[in-house]
Amino acid sequence: MVSMAWPIIFVFPPPASVFITAMSAISFTLASAGISEMRGKNMQYSKFWKNSNQPDSQKSKQIYISGRRGMQIAYTPAFLASLTSLVLFPHNDGIRYLLLSSALTIHFLKRLLEVQFVHKYSGGMALDTAIPISLSYFMSTATMVYAQHLTITQGLPEPPIDLKYPGILLFLVGISGNFYHHYLLSRMRSSSSSSPSTSKSNDDKDYKIPRGGLFELVVCPHYLFEIIGFIGFAFISQTLYAFAYMAGTTFYLTGRSYATRRWYLSKFKNFPQHVKALIPYMY
Fold it and tell me: How many whole angstroms separate alpha carbon 229 and alpha carbon 253?
């Protein structure tokens, strides 16, 4: 039994697991990825990443697949992991486990449906990029579920402050807002015409200044709502790993939003200066 001296009143005491401890520490490495995005070192699936900078010998060794297929590979294992945890182990691990597994399953199902029916793709993805992304999503999902399972099997005391019901609300707000702004982006990309003030530059593929919803205030409202959704996961779970992963994801998406705004500023001379990167009126 873990001592009641654990000082953080809204998080379960950490389980006796070297694996969970290591994965919690690894989650913070997402923060360094966010810093890299700010510095212009972008992920290879990003529209900011310049494939032309690769040596020809490296390009010839890579296997490229469509962007849609790449994202299907990225999300499917995590969806299957969360669905399996929901179907096979729903009864003995309590309401938090059930809520967390359900939320993760809905989250990745929504992503897969968006990949198939909502998102528009302007290029391909290297298979050796899709596979690490897939493994990352799978491992983080499985670890979050496993950490929740350990709170029951190791008899960890419930946090004095219960955040699971606010977490459900935040998850629903996050997933709804993220979907809505992805839908706005897809409509923008599918439009066949644009005004000269919002059209793409010659070396980019049908990009325009986003409009509608919170795009009027920030360039990445879909990232803002994704962060809100991950805060929801952390509140539902209240495990140290869930909070560590939420923090790492927040830092990463903050860096991505900064890079996105910088990209739009470089491509569109009339980009509105009042439109921030992630948080309305602030950042």
Answer: 12
